[in-house]
Amino acid sequence: MAALALKVKNKNGQHILKDLTSESTVGELKLFLYSLSDVSVDRIHVLFGFPPKPLDISDDNKTLSEIGLKTGETLILEEKTSVQEITSKAEPQKPVENGVTSHEAVGSCRPGILMKKIVPPDNSCLFTSIGFVLNGNVDTSVHTLMRQIIAMEVASDHETYNEAMLGKPNAEYCTWIQQPSSWGGAIEVAILSRFYGLEMAVVDTLNAIINRFGEDKNYGQRVFLLFDGVHYDPLYLEQSDGGVQTIFAAEDMDIYREAEQLAHEAKSSRQFTDLNKFTLKCMNCNKFLTGQAEAQRHAKETMHTNFGEV
Questions:
Q1: Can 304 be counted among the known catalytic residues?
Q2: Catalytic residue among 45, 103, 122, 252
Q3: For the segment 230-240, what is each residue's pLDDT rounded down to a tens digit?
Q4: pTM passes above 0.70
Q5: Domain Ubiquitin-like: where (predicted)?
Q6: Active site residue 231
Q7: What is the phi/psi pair of residue 267, to 5°?
Q8: Does the annotation count 125 as an active-site position?
Q9: How far, in Å, CA of 289 to CA of 132, rounded?
Q10: I want to staple 129 with a disulfide (CB 3.0 to 4.6 A). Which of 68, 191, 232, 287 is the partner?
């Protein structure tokens, strides 16, 4: 009978659960999860794995080994939302006595603040950022797998991923994207959004807008990435007890509005990269270049296409 150590994340923070074994039942797991949160047993919803996917906890008599739980797993604890609650959230909010709407009052009580996690500027910042919002830690090796996923998707659909869309022939792109020096952008975010089954909201501080990838897929969850014109960083909710939340319900518009506000504040304080002044290094000939226009000119003259952040 193997003891299990499980990491549990919810809106109140992170917890380590060590009181269960592989032969403990789903019902026992639910009771422990209830004790860690304010979510009633019948409304507990759990995600696990990489990428996070729903854990089947419908049968209280099954053992944890039977539903696939192993020691070291991270469980994301959420509360099921009823159709009635979703409908009521969509209705206009009535002002409370102090002049603040009830929606605003709820939003102001959110246990945490939306923060940026800085990841290395190593040409794989997009992939490292996505890795962070998926598993909660900075792992600079995840880009290899993600680049392979993208290359396989592109190679399997020549009609969609044609030269006009990619800026280069399909096969050439597939080779290019798997090189560690190649940057990711909108095409890559869209593919990874579909692969992981999550809406990826890119908070663009250059233009103070949010570009939503997977918005039309009705995904149940959303993650946030910050983009300053050149570099990506992940966003997370830092909670009052030190916990970290990176995956949010798609209907959580409070956190979405916080991300919008962050975009506007970043633009007003000029927290973005000036594309006419930032420095790049050509990874083919080691020449330093200033600004996007100079880099494009160098690429046209030399056919060099691999640039690194400086």
A1: yes
A2: 122
A3: 889 999 987 66
A4: no
A5: 4-77
A6: yes
A7: -70, -45
A8: yes
A9: 30
A10: 232
